[in-house]
Amino acid sequence: MKRVMVLALAAVLCVAFSMVAYAVDVPTGPVKMDATKKPVIFNHDTHKDYKCGECHHPVDGKENYQKCATAGCHSAAKADKKKAGSYYKIVHNKKAGKKSGIATCISCHKKVAGKDKAQKKALTGCKKSKCHP
Which domains does the chain have, with CATH numbers? Predict the structure, then answer.
């Protein structure tokens, strides 16, 4: 019986330590996303009810939480603005999420705002919105 208890405790500790090893250090408060002409102030705290995978996608089958505009990921170059997978498109594509399951800021905000005109302007507008204050 004692041996079973020790093995059970060891299993619990292994799971706990593996969870700590893979824990993600989520930023708190506002984060300035300044890879484009109009910087965005993003607040993880106001998005805490969403799963990380709703916005962040795996790379090579592994979770990846690096900045989207990291070299080799989503290009923020002005010339690439309209290309699929560009930094601009991953934030502004209104139809995202339907095929890929990954939302963009605009696709999610559009869904949240629904038919409320004031919310729609605040969440999806270009100027003086919650994204571009």
Answer: 27-124 (3.90.10.10)
